[in-house]
User: Which sequence fits this backbone?
């Protein structure tokens, strides 16, 4: 099983390898989409736009949790893939162990501190008197579940980095399936409203975390963690942080951007906030699919970069971009012709649907740009290009996006507010393309590190 993962990354025909790695990741993202939409969907059935707004303004909280976990999941995964490409299995296990343990420690700190800071967060996003209490109830339980939420994300990313996309998909399906079953039970049967949605979410995350822990501890992974591989080593942290921080900084800035958007939207009404939240969830459908493809090819790019197999790596990038662009056409047509029908699945409030349709109208035409941008950003991370990844991270959601929010909102009101994100995507994708093109153009042909069978001694070490 371990050898077959290496074969996929190193030797399998490229188109088949991309499909083999990306399909489970895309399916995992589809499961994540269901998870992302579940709370909003069931809360929407209560026909109270204030509750929808309360859940919507909680979205930046998830973004921050994923961003911090992504430091260790994305950063550790990028380094892990490159180590596997170099056949450094010992280093891969040390990296996985260090990333997981550190993520767990940090998650406990965030759970305690975040719970205490919920009131400050709600004031920062401009929660109204009506949305404050239900939003607090929702966030309180989500913050208590931070260790499960963060560890699950870290474990998923590390598994994907070694090519175990099917295992990642299985765990995500388990957690999301439980959330879908428990949401209506807690919300409607137990009459717990938004609190029930949060409790159901935490339970699903906890079970998924348990599944991934079992997978690792049962010895199925190439880079199974163990305490004897724990290394508080400067080089490991340097590699994790140099890639993980830029990758996660984009999500952190996105969270800040969402906070600003919801705060500005709140000046119009709670209905506008609800519309932003629902439309953002709908727009996450194509976003997550493209993320799934980029996550799927990440180990392929990182492994072959580490192995100096640059022709295979370049072809993987080109083919992945082509696949994403073709898929973007489908989503573009879907959201052009059926925005009202899709939004109606989450709310029956006519004004929310009307405002939400205007948000989608601004977002949808940037879908092809976003599709290409995801692969380009992943390529920079996979190759360990920390500086370029950092520039893109602070540009897309920071120094480009946030000023555009204020500028366009001041000039064009709510319509301008929703134009900020697509314009930021266009600008930063252009910058990403320039970076990747320059890097690939200047890569020199190098000696490819040849295939290496895992020896009996290494096999015992891996399983042990």
Assistant:
């Amino acid at each position: 099983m371990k050898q077959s993962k290496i074969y996929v990354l190193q030797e399998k025909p490229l188109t088949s390898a991309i499909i083999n790695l990306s399909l489970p990741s895309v399916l995992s993202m589809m499961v994540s989409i269901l998870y992302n939409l579940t709370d909003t969907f069931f809360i929407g059935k209560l026909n109270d736009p204030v509750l929808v707004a309360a859940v919507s303004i909680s979205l930046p909280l998830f973004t921050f949790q994923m961003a911090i976990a992504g430091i260790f999941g994305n950063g550790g995964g990028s380094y892990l893939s490159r180590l596997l490409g170099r056949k450094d299995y010992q280093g891969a296990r040390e990296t996985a162990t260090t990333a997981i343990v550190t993520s767990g420690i940090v998650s406990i700190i965030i759970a305690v501190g975040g719970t205490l800071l919920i009131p400050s967060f709600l004031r920062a996003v401009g929660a109204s008197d009506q949305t404050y209490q239900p939003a607090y109830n929702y966030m309180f339980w989500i913050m208590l579940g931070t260790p499960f939420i963060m560890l699950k994300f870290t474990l998923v990313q590390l598994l994907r980095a070694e090519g175990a996309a099917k295992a990642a998909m299985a765990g995500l399906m388990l957690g999301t399936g439980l959330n879908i079953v428990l949401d209506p039970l807690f919300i409607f049967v137990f009459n717990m409203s938004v609190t029930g949605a949060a409790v159901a979410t935490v339970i699903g995350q906890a079970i998924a975390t348990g599944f991934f822990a079992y997978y690792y501890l049962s010895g199925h992974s190439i880079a199974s963690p163990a305490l004897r591989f724990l290394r508080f080593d400067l080089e490991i942290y340097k590699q994790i942080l140099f890639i993980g921080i830029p990758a996660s900084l984009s999500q952190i800035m996105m969270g800040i951007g969402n906070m600003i958007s919801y705060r500005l939207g709140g000046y119009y009404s709670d209905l506008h906030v609800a519309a932003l939240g629902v439309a953002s969830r709908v727009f996450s459908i194509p976003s997550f699919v493209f993320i799934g493809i980029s996550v799927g090819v990440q180990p392929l790019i990182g492994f072959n970069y580490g192995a100096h197999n640059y022709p295979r790596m370049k072809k993987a990038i080109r083919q992945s971009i082509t696949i994403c662009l073709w898929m973007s056409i489908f989503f573009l047509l879907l959201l052009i012709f059926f925005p009202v029908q899709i939004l109606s699945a989450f709310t029956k409030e006519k004004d929310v649907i009307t405002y939400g349709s205007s948000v989608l109208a601004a977002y949808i035409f940037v879908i092809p740009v976003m599709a290409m941008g995801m692969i380009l950003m992943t390529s920079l991370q996979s190759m360990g290009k920390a500086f370029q990844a950092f520039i893109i991270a602070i540009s897309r959601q920071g120094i480009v996006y946030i000023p555009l929010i204020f500028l366009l909102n001041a000039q064009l009101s709510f319509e301008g507010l929703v134009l900020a994100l697509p314009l930021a995507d266009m600008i930063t994708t252009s910058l990403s393309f320039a970076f990747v093109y320059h890097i690939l153009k200047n890569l020199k042909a190098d000696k490819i590190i040849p295939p290496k069978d895992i020896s009996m001694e290494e096999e015992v070490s891996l399983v042990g």
Residues 375 and 402 are 23 Å apart (CA to CA). Residues 2-463 form one domain. The radius of gyration is 21 Å.
